[in-house]
Write a structure and sequence with these properties.
It contains twelve helices and eight strands. The chain has 253 residues and is α/β, with parallel strands linked by helices. The chain has a single domain, classed as TIM Barrel, CATH 3.20.20. It binds phosphoenolpyruvate.
Length: 253
């Protein structure tokens, strides 16, 4: 059965003191609350915080993720951090292909495939992001666009490799804008993504794929979004920086 997940993407927010405090608050709140056992909780702090935060997380249910990794495994790549390095500090999942990375750092599908491969080879879970910009939705080419992102980045993997991948559908027009896709829009696209996956990897793998929705998820809209048949949770940006709000989102299942 596919896993339900709420993942927090902190982006480039918090200094180390604030980050450790936030992670501890989330960890303690999760420990105290009665959150259903089948729900996975992921936090993706900035790179500089990962090692220390790994030491303050006690609850096994809070899983540490990175927001990015290098497509290369080692070598003369100044400023880059490999998947192996992330794994060595306790990271268990890596966000790959966030729209901000695609837009500001020119990450192509080809680069993303390499990153995902590296994440899998280092025993971590890739959270692969896809989604259209507003202009593409307005032109009515959003399904085509998401299909091509998935085909280009994921269809070269074996079934065994693919089974490790989590997909996050994040319409770019809904990220950080306060505009959320309606639950019907989210369900429609998630169902389409599952069908796209099925065409390559078959029904079982498609049914077992966790597909998260991302784009201005907050406590007030999470329940409605997460109640959709093909929405398996959320990738949460802004609202994950507040421990109480994040916990409310987790409890929306
Ligand atoms: C994100 O960063 O992936 C995101 C969805 O951000 P926000 O929730 O702030 O829209």
């Amino acid at each position: 059965m596919r896993k339900k997940i709420v993942a927090g993407n902190w982006k480039m927010h918090t200094n180390i003191r604030e980050g450790v405090a936030l992670a501890s608050a989330i960890d303690k709140a999760v420990e105290k609350s009665e959150i259903k056992s089948e729900i996975g909780i992921i936090i993706a702090p900035p790179l500089t915080h990962l090692s220390l935060i790994n030491q303050v997380i006690n609850d096994e249910r809070v899983c540490l993720a990175a927001q990015n990794c290098s497509s290369e495994s080692k070598g003369a790549f100044t400023g880059e951090v490999s998947a192996k390095m992330l794994h060595s500090v306790g990271v268990k999942a890596v966000i790959v292909g966030h729209s901000e990375r695609r837009a500001y750092y020119g990450e192509t599908d080809e680069i993303l495939t390499k990153k995902i491969k590296s994440v899998i080879e280092n025993s971590m879970l890739p959270i692969f992001c896809c989604g259209e910009v507003l202009e593409q939705r307005e032109k009515g080419i959003h399904f085509e666009l998401v299909k091509s992102q998935i085909e280009n980045a994921l269809f070269g993997f074996t079934s065994e490799e693919y089974s490790k991948i989590i997909i996050a559908y994040e319409p770019v027009w809904a990220i950080g804008t306060g505009k959320t896709a309606s639950s019907a829009q989210a369900q429609e696209m998630h169902e389409f993504i599952r069908k796209t996956v099925e065409s390559k990897f078959g029904k079982d793998l498609a049914e077992n794929t966790t597909i998260l929705y991302g784009g201005s998820v907050k406590a007030s809209n999470a329940k409605e979004l997460f109640s959709q048949k093909d929405v398996d949770g959320g990738l949460v940006g802004g609202a994950s920086l507040d421990a109480d709000e994040f916990l409310e989102i987790i409890k929306s299942f």
